[in-house]
Specification:
Elements lengths: L1 H9 L3 E3 L5 E3 L1 H10 L11 H4 L3 H19 L12 H12 L5 H17 L3 H10 L10 H7 L4 H21 L5 H11 L7 H11 L4 H7 L4 H14 L14 H10 L5 H7 L5 H17 L1
Antiparallel strand pairs: 1-2
Helix pairs in contact: 4-6, 4-10, 7-9, 8-9, 11-13, 12-13, 13-16, 14-16
Length: 295
C-alpha cells in the first residue's frame, strides 16, 4: 500500500497533504478518466460500508445456492464446495431455522436469484452466475471467467463485487421482495458488523452527548483516533448527523469555500480557517458528497 502511494507521488498522479491525506493531482484525474473509458467502472462498491463482511456474504450465497440446487434435484450425494466446518454448520442451522419445507425454500430462493440477476448489468449477471455451483454444474474460477470475458482477473473480481454490492442494496431496501437473501444478510450481521466495536462505542458516546475531546479523555484514546471514528461513521451511516459534530466550527464558511473551489485541499482551507481541524474538513467533503448524491 505504502509502495503504491510512493509510486503515485513519483508519477505525479497523487499528492500528499497534511495528516497523511492523499489526493489526486490534475494529471491523476485525467489518467483515471482515460483508463475508465476502456475499463469497467464500478458504481456500487462501498467497502467502507460492507468491506468487513461482503466476501463472507458471497461465500454463504454461493454455498446456499449449491445446497438448495441439489435439494431441488433431490440429490443427497454431492461434494460440498465449502470445506470450512463452521460454514457447513451455519448452513445446517440456517436451513433448520426456516419454516417452509426445503423444497419450497429452494424454489423461492431460485426465483429471488433470477429477479436479482435480471436487475444486474449483462456482464455483472453473467460473471456472478458463472461463479455459482449447482446440480451437475461446477462454477468457474476467476481465471476461467477472465479468459472467457477477455478481461484481467482483478477486473472480474471488481465486476463481481460491484454487482454484489448492488444486490445487497436491493435486498436491504426491499426485504419483503427478497426475504431469503435478506435473512442470510441479517444472520451475517449478528457476527460481522460494518464497523469495529471501538467505532460503535464512539457512536454510543456521541449519542450520550459527549464531545470528541471528552470521549478521547474518558477512553484514553488519541483525539485523532476518535476523529477517525467519526469520519468512518459519517461515511457508513447516511443518517449520521454531521452538523451536530461541527456546530462550534465555521461550518457555513468552510462549506462555501468548498463550493466555490471544490478541489481545495486541507492546506488551502487552513489558509482561510487555521483553527479548523482535519476531521472537520473531511466531514465537510462527506457532507457535500451526500448532498450531491441525494439529488
Amino acid at each position: 500500500y505504502q509502495h503504491s502511494l510512493k509510486k503515485g507521488i513519483a508519477l505525479k498522479i497523487l499528492k500528499k497533504e497534511e495528516n497523511d491525506y492523499y489526493c489526486l493531482t490534475e494529471m491523476g484525474q485525467k489518467e483515471i478518466t482515460a483508463y475508465f473509458e476502456k475499463q469497467y467502472y464500478p458504481t456500487e462498491l462501498n467497502f467502507l460500508q460492507n468491506g468487513r463482511w461482503i466476501h463472507v456474504y458471497w461465500r454463504r450465497l454461493v454455498f446456499v445456492s449449491q445446497v438448495l440446487s441439489e435439494i431441488r434435484y433431490k440429490n443427497q450425494s454431492y461434494i460440498p464446495i465449502e470445506k470450512e466446518w463452521s460454514l457447513q454448520v451455519w448452513v445446517k442451522k440456517w436451513l433448520k431455522s426456516k419454516s417452509e419445507s426445503r423444497e419450497e425454500l429452494a424454489e423461492a430462493f431460485g426465483i429471488e436469484w433470477l429477479q436479482l440477476a435480471r436487475n444486474q448489468s449483462k456482464i455483472s449477471a453473467e460473471i456472478m452466475i458463472g461463479f455459482l455451483t449447482g446440480h451437475d454444474y461446477y462454477g468457474q474460477t476467476t481465471m476461467q471467467l477472465a479468459t472467457a470475458f477477455l478481461k484481467e482477473a482483478v477486473e472480474v473480481r471488481i465486476i463481481l463485487l460491484d454487482g454484489l454490492s448492488k444486490l445487497i442494496h436491493e435486498v436491504t431496501e426491499q426485504p419483503e421482495t427478497f426475504p431469503i437473501f435478506f435473512s442470510i444478510f441479517t444472520d451475517l450481521l449478528e457476527t460481522h458488523g460494518a464497523v469495529s466495536q471501538s467505532v460503535r462505542q464512539t457512536q454510543k458516546n456521541l449519542m450520550e452527548g459527549l464531545d470528541l475531546i471528552e470521549i478521547a479523555k474518558i477512553r484514553q484514546l488519541k483525539l485523532s483516533t476518535v476523529s477517525e471514528h467519526v469520519i468512518e461513521l459519517s461515511l457508513i451511516d447516511k443518517k449520521f448527523n454531521v452538523h451536530s459534530l461541527i456546530k462550534e466550527q465555521p461550518f457555513l464558511e468552510v462549506k462555501q469555500q468548498l463550493e466555490n473551489q471544490p478541489m481545495s485541499s486541507f492546506s488551502d482551507i487552513k489558509e482561510f480557517f487555521p483553527e479548523v481541524p482535519f476531521y472537520v474538513y473531511r466531514l465537510m467533503q462527506i457532507e457535500r458528497w451526500r448532498e450531491k448524491n441525494a439529488n
